[in-house]
Design goal:
- This protein is α/β, with parallel strands linked by helices.
- The chain has a single domain, classed as 3-Layer(aba) Sandwich (Rossmann fold).
- It is built from 20 helices and 17 strands.
- The strands form four sheets. It has an eleven-stranded mixed beta sheet with strand order 15-14-13-12-7-6-4-5-2-1-17, sandwiched between helices. It has a two-stranded antiparallel ribbon with strand order 3-16. It has a two-stranded antiparallel ribbon with strand order 8-9.
- Strand 4, helix 9 and strand 5 form a beta-alpha-beta unit.
- Helix 12 runs antiparallel to helix 16.
- It starts with 17 loop residues before the first helix and ends in an 8-residue tail after the last strand.
Length: about 550
């Protein structure tokens, strides 16, 4: 099928995962304001030019001659009142004119790449907060709601705001968590914890067929958020899908680290995975294991693959990397350009002082990188409309955030600073010099078209880092999490694939890619089955004499 007319640029406004890990230094943001003030004072003619253009826009607005209109995708101005009521229409046009004027002004200033990125980010955050829809009087739908409910919506909104201040660390709630219970309607696939250490639990899932493929699959989740994303609901469970197709899945569930675990670094997590490999091979009787890692778990997986090669350990048969950036670059996105050496230094110092990078801090930074979608949208819904946030399983998981140890945080910052995966042998991580060119197992790499966290073109660069001869790259038509959780049955689902060796650039790959209707899961499953050996009798029990079950799935660490 053709992919003509489909825009897969996809990452121009994206935010790379490193930004929340680095954080945004207050000094850097204030510095952006200082730079704009400096340029205004140094070249007042530029400012005056854009002020005149803005004044022209205002005159047209006041005389009802303006054709300024919101983007059709901008949900803030979807209420018909914005088009029909002259007062609200002029207010909307004034706001959009101011927004456009500031953007043009910043584009006209003589700034370097980093200064311009910061100026755009700061101005965008300020302008987003000043949108008329964020206030009661400026939001016609909120006013209608208050009238219809006799003020009840405003009372509920105040209650929601109070609850967020007291019980949600001051972060506006994105999900109604009440309907979800882990182990009851979330993470319900039958299985057992067959190994537990301070840092992880290892879960083996009960087979769903009489025969299984002999080579098992070890899933390595991110250290941020909980591992049960792999077994979210029965309809979205990748674990259940694997079991239904004869795969033997084992899942690592990381412990949510506290301050006393501050010294757990990448080396400790890699050693834990090696221990998990020992358990999996002992329990399954297999000499080979397939591995799969997503997002930051993909960074850990890549480090593991390099480490095993250095150890001459050949147990990994194949690897799957999902929505994972191993070679970040500044031009991946505007937000990516915000990262500075100063910001990295401060981020490392902050987590070292605390011992951990708190999950709430990560959640807050993620939200403010996309304030309209992840902050103001919920302010309007929860506070102005007085509605509960949606009860959505993926958002429930997403808000079940975990801490990041100071040591692992520092190691991830080193991945940005030293680019170890793109510079073979130049950096030491996890007790060895990283060299992916020596990793030669077959690879399956997946990315998401609209991924705002790990842009697909940045994910594609991983195809050029390994020594593997057989690398499959697939592009799922969705965002970061939903690109992964995209099971069969969605009529809108589609993905892109290309035959032959992966070319040097994502643009070249795209030119030869074909669009395929449906979920990418069946395509990956066929690939995984081809790498999972022959069919053997399914195990009649979980664990073995050396590794006996110590609890039921999803385990204790999923709850902590």
């Amino acid at each position: 099928m053709s992919r003509k007319g489909v825009d897969l640029g996809g990452d121009g406004d994206a935010n790379v995962a490193l930004n929340p890990i680095v954080g945004l230094a207050r000094e850097d943001l204030l510095g952006a304001v200082s730079v704009m003030l400096r340029e205004t004072a140094a070249k007042p003619s530029t400012t005056l030019k854009h002020a005149r253009l803005f004044t022209d826009d205002v005159v047209k607005i006041l005389t009802n001659k303006s054709d300024i209109a919101p983007d059709p995708k901008d949900k803030r101005f979807a209420d018909p009142t914005w088009a029909k009521n002259p007062f609200y229409r002029m207010g909307m046009q004034y706001y959009l004119a101011a927004q456009s004027s500031v953007n043009r002004w910043i584009a006209d200033l003589e700034l370097d790449e980093l200064e311009r990125a910061r100026a755009n980010f700061v101005s965008g955050m300020i302008l987003d907060s000043l949108a008329p829809t964020n206030s009661l009087l400026g939001n016609p739908s909120a006013i209608k709601k208050s009238v219809e409910t006799g003020g009840g919506s405003l009372i509920r909104g105040l209650k929601n705001a109070y609850n967020d201040m007291v019980h949600n660390d001051g972060i506006v709630s994105q999900v109604d968590s009440r309907p979800f219970k882990i182990g009851e309607n979330i993470a319900t696939s039958p299985g057992a914890v067959i190994y537990r250490s301070e840092i992880m639990e290892l879960i083996q899932y009960a087979p769903a067929s009489e025969t299984v493929h002999e080579i098992p699959l070890l899933i390595i989740p991110p250290q941020i958020n909980k591992a049960y994303i792999n077994d979210l609901t029965p309809e979205k469970s990748i674990i259940r899908y694997e079991l239904a197709h004869g795969i033997q899945p084992f899942l690592i569930s990381w412990r949510n680290p506290q301050i006393e675990h501050r010294e757990w670094g990448l080396a400790d997590y890699v050693e834990a995975i090696i221990t998990a490999l020992d358990v999996v091979t002992s329990v399954s009787g297999a000499t080979k294991v397939n591995v799969a890692g997503a997002c930051s778990g993909g960074i850990t997986t890549a480090t593991l693959l390099s480490k095993l090669k250095a150890m001459k350990d050949e147990r990994v048969n194949s690897a799957t990397l999902m929505v994972c950036v191993l070679h970040p670059q500044r031009n991946d996105s505007e937000a990516r350009a915000l990262v500075s050496a100063h910001g990295i230094k401060l981020a490392r110092e902050r987590s070292a002082k605390k011992g951990i990078l708190e999950g709430s801090s990560l959640a807050r930074t993620f939200a403010w990188l996309r304030p309209n979608d992840l902050v103001w949208n919920y302010v309007i819904n929860n506070y102005l409309h007085g509605e509960d946030p949606p009860a959505f399983d993926i958002l429930f998981w997403n808000n079940d955030s975990t801490n990041l140890t100071a040591a692992l945080h520092s190691d991830y910052l080193r991945v940005y600073e030293e680019q170890p995966f793109a510079n073979p042998g130049a950096s030491e991580l996890a007790g060895h010099h990283v060299d992916l060119t020596k990793v030669d197992c077959d690879l399956f790499i997946m990315a998401g078209v609209t991924d705002h966290i790990t842009p697909w073109k940045a994910c594609y660069r991983s195809t050029q880092l390994f020594g593997s001869k057989n690398i499959e790259f697939v592009l799922s038509h969705s965002g970061h999490i939903q690109a992964i959780l995209n099971p069969p049955g969605n009529p809108k689902a589609k993905f892109y694939r290309a035959s032959g060796p992966a070319p040097s650039t994502p643009e070249k790959w795209l030119s030869g890619a074909e669009e395929v209707a449906g979920s990418w899961w069946p395509y990956w499953m066929k690939w995984l089955q081809d790498h999972s050996g022959k069919q053997v009798a399914a195990p009649k029990s979980l664990g073995n004499k050396s590794y006996k079950p110590v609890g039921s799935a999803p385990g204790d660490y999923a709850l902590g």
